[in-house]
Amino acid sequence: MQPKRTELAKVQEDGKPFPSSTVLQRQEKPALTHRLPARLTENRTGQSLGLRSRFAAALVSASGAETGHGLVLLLVPVMMGLGAGLFYMASVNPPILPLAVGFLSFLLMTLITRAGRPKLACAAGLAAAVFAGSLAATVELRGVGPLLDSDVTTEVTGMVEARDFDAGGRVRYLIRLAGTADPLIRRPPRRVRLVARSPHSPLPVGSLISGRARLSAPSGPVLPGGYDFAFGAFVDGIGAHGFFYRAPRAVPAASANPRLVETARLQLRQLREHVSARIRSLLPGDPGGIGAALTVSDRRGISQATVDALRATGLAHILAISGLHMALAAGTLFVGLRMALALFPGLVEAWPVKKAAAIGAMLTATAYLLISGGSVPTLRAWIMLMVMLVAVLADRPALTMRNVALAAILIILISPSAVVGPGFQMSFAATAALISAYAALTGRKRKQEPGLSSAHRFLKPPEWLARIVRGMIGLAITSLVAGLATGLFSAHHFNRVAGNGLLANMLAMPLVTFVVMPSGLVAMLTMPFGLDAWPLQLMGLGLRGVVAVARYVHGLGGDLLVGQLPMRATVAAGAGFIVLVMLRSRLRIAGIALITAGAVLALPPLAPRAPDILVSEDGRLIGLNTPDGLASNAARPSEFTFRQWQTALRGPQHLPPVTYSTALIATSTEPETQAAREMQAKILDPLMAAAADQPSRFQCARRGVCAALYKQATIIAIDRAELIGPACDRADLVIVAIPVYMSACRSGATLITSRSLRRSGALAIRIVAADQPAPPPGIGATAATMGDSRAVRGTGRIDARRRPSKNRPVFDIEAALEGVVRPWTVQRYYDWRTQSYDLPQ
Residue 206 maps to which CATH number? Predict the structure, then answer.
């Protein structure tokens, strides 16, 4: 074998003779060969190694290295999450039989090829993981109650499962419905959430409650591509929300023996209320609200200004019981118990005190889970912590990528719907990124040369100062890595990025870590004995400091609104993040390339054009995305909807409508005569003339009768049936905020009604110039009517086969839920009169 050039040079410099075999090999091939570039060297067969062959060899080598450290196990939760995500994104329910057959087939293939063909077995196993995620999602949806199909006022009776109080003192009840009356709801939801506005003595958890209430169906996305709130309500088992008209009253309960599990659940909820009330009594204001959120997951009572400041500075994560809080609570007890046991040397020598402390931490985390309500984020944090503590009991490293993967697999099996939510994505992204970053930093530190020179030893700082510096550097790295890892998902779900999040976390997290959570843990342990006053006061001081930091950093600015990101950009950047975090070889460079590609896809000209017109799902709120701001047809629009519109469009200011004074609008409820209808129609001409004088702004006689001219398109929004005909004759786009059976304008104008919006959901409309050709059918095609049954199923876009008129503008209409028939949208097709579903063909 030919010796390396470095070895030959070393032997020559030492002046020692070569071994005989080495000399022979050196004589067979001149030493000049070692100085030639690698691209000119030849193998024994005389064939040159080309660039392509070297690249392929490097790729094979890197792939083998990745497989060696368990990459397949790390990819299993990724593929399961992909399967669950594809299941929830489907337009219709995938049948369970093909999913089960696919899972069993690939699982059988994995077992058969495991010994002979390991690569094929790995591929089949990952495919089986995709089907497993979809099957878990199918099982989760079974047994969930229906959602309310339409708003209704009725008499409700049910049992109080939970209650909380907001900042104004109003009580919000979570009620398990026992029955409805006057009218009777034939398709009632199982649970509803109702607010009691009237002053009354709050009814305890477990009591029967009754009252006249207004029930509303859960709303869908406020714009296409937005979060579907009906899906969240469906997963939580809450089929409707609303309010009591008057103070609810208690109903005598029939004598019955409740089940043991139900009794335990009610007692836990009563305990949570007691803890929350105790914290709020000692810590009024925002500190008490945040303290209740950290202990029992009760976020009510926090002012909106504080919530906005925490969200804008990247500190909103402290309001949710996440892995950080669970780890701080259990970790504080783990360290404290271990230090206390270390005071007894005999006990340390006889028993494994580390494992005993781990068991104590597990009990603490379990108690924290129960008292906090057991929400999905808290359950996720508990599972992650349990996996890590079990690793401590097994004498394995606690914080590894494999443990994170195992926790993710368990969570997907238990609650696969969490995959599409921001909590799951952000928490696991931060954890995986921190483990990967610290592994890289630790490996780099080990490669450094050990030992210090005398000058370095002289300049070495004191140990206490070095610990402080290392702690600050570690906190900075943690905040930076976690902020970068969660920034992508924050931008996708909330359309914003906290620009000063690093500064806010650097200032606030020491208070949370060393003051708030330890004092909160002591307060919870001493509360049964009435000794929790001083720990809660100390916790309140820390929380006041956190709020002060949030407001100070919020005052500096830095809250970046990125707008609504296209899905393809998020997918590309998310795939790049997975590659960058999970891989260890040079293949991780591909992750940087994918993240860059995602950023490019989110920027013009590759990003889709912002919508020109936004329509809410009930048709009552309309927004024009003008260069000067977001013009609406309401002086005081719905804050819930309009605020999300502003965030998705990067924060344009609100342009209220211009009130056009007229007395022609009749307010009588008597039947309209022909003369009255003609008088009603005459109001549209002055409104359109005013809209032409002041374009890109709504002109309203009142909120239900408005007109606007924007980009050469005339828009009329009305809520009176007698004005539909005149509006169709005068406008290009007519939006009717009442349910009517009329599906098209004979004049060729585009008609949108509340009835069509119930099926399609919110709309985003882009105006195409009249002199441009109409898009082909099926590819963002023009919509002549929202009542046309020829919609493209699953695309979210309405398909009309013809352009209404040569001179009319073309409207590219994108619908949030068009063609989507899932358990959380099927109520949109239910007709309570016929008690049947009018599903699309």
Answer: 2.40.50
Enumerate residues 6+ apart whose C-beta is below 8 A from 675: none
How far is it, in rounded angstroms, from Cα 406 to Cα 417?
17
Query: Within this chain, do residues 468 and 546 fall inside the same structural domain, yes or no?
Result: yes
How far apart are the C-alpha atoms of 332 and 518, rounded to whole Å?
A: 7
Cβ atoms of 163 and 215 closer than 8 Å: no
| pLDDT digits 0-9 by tens, 230-289 | 999 999 889 999 999 999 999 887 655 667 777 777 788 888 888 888 898 889 888 988
Integer Cα distance of 290 and 302 in angstroms? 7
59 vs 220, higher pLDDT: 220
Per-residue pLDDT band for 446 (boundaries 50, 70, 90) equals low
State the CB neighbour count (10 A cutoff) for residue 407.
24
Residues 246 and 313 in one domain: no
Looking at the fold, whether 820 and 683 belong to one and the same domain comes out as yes
DSSP-assigned letter for residue 227? -
Could you tell me if 548 and 627 lie in one domain?
no
By the 8 A CB rule, do 717 and 632 touch? no
Sheet holding 654-655, edge to edge: 654-655, 629-632, 622-626, 613-615, 763-768, 810-815
pTM: 0.82
Query: Alpha-carbon distance 622 to 624, whole Å?
Result: 7
The pLDDT tens digits for 123-156 are: 999 999 999 999 999 999 887 889 999 899 999 9
- pLDDT tens profile 425-435: 888 888 888 88
Residue 265 included in any domain = no
User: Are 539 and 585 contained in the same domain?
Assistant: no
Indicate whether 256 belongs to any domain.
no
Residue 748 to residue 743: CA distance in whole angstroms: 11
Interatomic CA distance for residues 233 and 238, integer angstroms: 5
What is the number of alpha carbons within 13 Å of residue 89 lying toward its C-beta?
A: 13
542: nearest Cα among 285, 280, 287: 287
User: What is the rounded average pLDDT for all residues in the chain?
Assistant: 81
Q: Is the dihedral of CA 36, 42, 48, 54 positive or negative?
A: negative
Phi–psi pair at 150, nearest 5 degrees: -155, 160
Residue 736's beta-bridge partner residues?
718, 753
* Separation in Å, CA 705 to CA 364, 630, 721, 744, 761: 60, 19, 11, 19, 22
Q: Which helix (H) or strand (E) holds 735?
A: strand 733-736
Position 448 scores a pLDDT of 52
Same domain, 90 and 202: no
What is the predicted pLDDT for the residue at 327? 79
User: Cα dihedral sign for 15, 19, 20, 24?
Assistant: negative
For 412, the token pair is 């997907």
pLDDT tens digits, residue range 753-807? 999 999 999 999 999 865 454 444 333 333 333 433 323 233 344 333 233 445 7
Kindly state the tokens that stand for 136: 């878990």
Instruction: Find the distance separating the first CA and the last CA of the chain, reported in whole Å.
Output: 75
Inform me whether the pLDDT recorded for 33 exceeds 80: no
Q: What pLDDT, on a 0 to 100 scale, did the predictor assign at position 680?
A: 67
Residues of the domain holding 23: 1-33
Q: For the chain, how many residues are written?
A: 841
- Residue 59's region, left for phi above 0, alpha for psi from -120 to 50, else beta, is alpha
Together in a domain, 161 and 117: no
Cβ atoms of residues 774 and 812 within 8 Å: no
Q: Determine which of 166-170, 215-219, 346-350, 624-628 has the lowest per-residue pLDDT on average.
A: 166-170
Q: Give CA–CA dist 123/830, Å, rounded.
A: 43
The Cα-based distances of 80 to 7, 115, 401, 417, 594 in angstroms read 51, 24, 16, 12, 21
**pLDDT tens digits along 76-97:** 999 999 999 999 999 999 999 9
Return the DSSP state at 117: -
Question: How far apart are alpha carbons 48 and 43 in whole angstroms?
Answer: 7
Residues 492 and 425 in one domain: yes
61 part of a folded domain: no
Domain count, the chain: 6
